[in-house]
Automatic annotation (TrEMBL):
This is DJ-1/PfpI family protein. It comes from Faecalibacterium butyricigenerans. Transmembrane segments: none annotated. InterPro entries: Class_I_gatase-like, DJ-1, DJ-1/PfpI, Prot/Nucl_acid_deglycase. Residues 3-165 form the DJ-1/PfpI domain.
Amino acid sequence: MSKAVLFFADGTEECEALLVADLLRRAKVEVIIASAMGRRALVSSHGIHLNADALAEDVDYSDVDMVVLPGGIPGTPNLAENKTVTDTCVSFAKAGKKVAAICAAPSVLASLGLLEGKNATAHAGFQDKLAGAIVHDEEVVVDGNITTSYGLGGAIPFALELVRQLAGPAEADRIQKAIAYRH
């Protein structure tokens, strides 16, 4: 079974975060929601109270296949301030392991130098923060082990792409039909 860690913080965009968790879990991917705030209780960008499974600092990343950064403000800067989050993204990217980010969060990857020369996307308001990337205005962009999406409007295709990467195309197709996503 594949395993993914989703980093959540205060101010995380809840739909981007929970939709990814939901579709990955439907695909039987083990998902750990890891808090970047030093506590498990979090408040999303729209005031929804969430509880993480673990603190980012306490997760064993040795058998994790993918890390995911949802967007949201101030969630994205909160993720960027957590050394475990940033160090894990760097180590995963350098090891060829999967790293994914949506909305404003690809800017965190860019600030770490992980998008240098890579095709990527982000929310229109953050595309200018993708220094070194070849920026595309598309729902989902995959370049090697890095997957990015432009925001909540791309959350379903983004999550389905992550399912495709971790559980295979047949499972992604099955889930797409099951949730009646026809695009």
